[in-house]
Write a structure and sequence with these properties.
The protein is an alpha/beta fold. The protein has helices at about 35-45, 55-65, 80-90, 105-115, 135-140, 160-170, 220-230, 240-270, 310-315, 330, 345-355, 365-380, 385-390, and strands at about 70-75, 95-100, 115-120, 145-150, 170-175, 185, 185-190, 195-200, 210-215, 275-280, 285-290, 295-300, 320-325, 340, 355-360. α4 links the parallel β2 and β3 (about 115-120).
Length: about 400
């Protein structure tokens, strides 16, 4: 029975109360005057519709300059960029590619697309990113590449990965799709590995609806990628209009990343006082991380048995953009398609426990961050009632 104190403002929105944020999550990418002005200019001068206009070339040059590397190749998505990187590294049928068992499923699929076999290793227990300790056992005579993805505000210890990879002569694809502009061991994310991957998908920190890029200093890899992707015309194109929209965002990336970092630090402090929720750890890295998703773990027992999925549903009903993380790759694919190294217990725990907050909140105000905790407290107090009424 509902008590008199549980009025509609205090009940969770999912069971009839008023939402903490009735306006919903912050819009993204939203209306950016700089992007609007750039797009309007390209529409006016006709360059937006060119096959080989100035904007893609300018964006590639700017990306290479920003990353302090020799080459940047634009393409249609981050997933396409990983495939092109694999092909540029001459990965093919019967080869093996090592990656974390907890990772974006597109990376797994890219390995299969080029005819290779994914080899899955475990992740760290406290940040769900690739644990280099599994690499030595995973690398064998058929290994042709390692994919290291920075996820959920956590960072792969790239110096450890590169040391092992160099010892075995295996190139590293560094997936920085979730953290463009982050600094890892004094270098921009995507430049520690042999080739870096970026995504310009609709929800990403740099957004053009779709799109991606590779950054590298490997001229031979670039030549092979171009030979593969140029088939009379570009087979994996980024349009001039997309490049126009991305250029002003690249100008603002560092400032926005700094704001995301400040708010992520504040949220991390607030979550430290929340029983059953723990931000993914990045304290052991010499890095300025980036936040496409702010990751944290969820303990069902601290919320009276409320499932992670029901908690996420309840948070979204409050106007807070929270979702479960990735599925562990070995749990969603036929075992005939990959091999594993170790028990993958941490990847399985990440599959079951990780939640992510979408990054637009991290560009908000102190009030926006505090609303996240207000929603958590409301759901915790009424966790049993939510289960009964759902």
């Amino acid at each position: 029975m509902t008590s008199a104190s549980d009025n509609n403002g205090e009940l969770p929105a999912i069971i009839g109360g008023a939402a903490v944020r009735p306006q919903g999550p912050p819009d993204w990418p939203g209306v950016d005057p700089a992007v609007s002005a750039a797009v309007e200019s390209a529409l006016a001068d006709g360059t937006w519709g060119k096959y080989h206009g100035p904007h893609c070339s300018q964006l590639a040059e700017r990306l290479a300059e920003y990353h302090q590397c020799e080459h940047a190749i634009l393409c249609s998505s981050g997933t396409a960029a990983v495939e092109l990187a694999l092909r540029g590294l001459k990965v093919g049928a019967g080869d093996e590619v090592v990656l974390a068992a907890y990772d974006f499923k597109g990376n797994f699929q890219d390995v299969l697309t080029v005819g290779a076999v994914p080899v899955l290793v475990d992740v760290f227990a406290d940040n769900s990113n690739l644990d280099p300790d599994g690499l030595e056992e995973a690398i064998g005579p058929k290994t042709r590449a390692i994919i290291a993805s920075h996820l959920h505000g956590g960072v792969v210890p790239m110096s450890d990965v590169m040391q092992i990879a160099r010892r075995h002569g295996v190139p590293v694809i560094e997936d920085a799709c979730q953290m463009p502009g982050a600094v890892i061991e004094g270098r921009i994310a995507g430049t520690v590995g042999d080739v870096g991957i970026h995504s310009f998908g609709g929800s990403k920190l740099l957004s053009a609806g779709r799109g991606g890029a590779l950054v590298t200093n490997d001229a031979e890899l670039v030549q092979r990628v171009r030979l593969y992707s140029h088939r009379g015309n570009e087979a994996y194109p980024l349009s001039e209009l997309q490049a126009v929209a991305l250029l002003p965002q690249l100008d603002q990336l560092d400032v926005r990343n700094a704001q995301r970092q400040r708010n992520a630090d504040r949220l991390r402090q607030l979550l430290a006082d929340q029983t059953g929720l723990a931000a993914l750890d990045n304290s052991g890295t010499t890095a300025l991380p980036g936040y496409y998703k702010f990751g944290f773990t969820y303990d069902v027992g601290a919320f009276s048995g409320l499932s992670r999925e029901s908690f996420a549903d309840s948070m979204r009903a409050e106007g807070i953009a929270v979702d479960p993380g990735f599925r562990a790759l070995h749990r969603i694919h036929s075992r005939r398609r990959f091999r594993t190294v170790g028990d993958l217990h941490n990847a399985e725990r990440s599959d079951e426990c990780v939640l992510t907050l979408h990054h637009p909140f991290l560009l908000g105000s102190d009030e926006d961050i505090e609303q996240i905790v207000i929603a958590i407290d409301k759901i915790r107090r009424h966790a049993t009632m939510i289960q009964q009424q759902k």
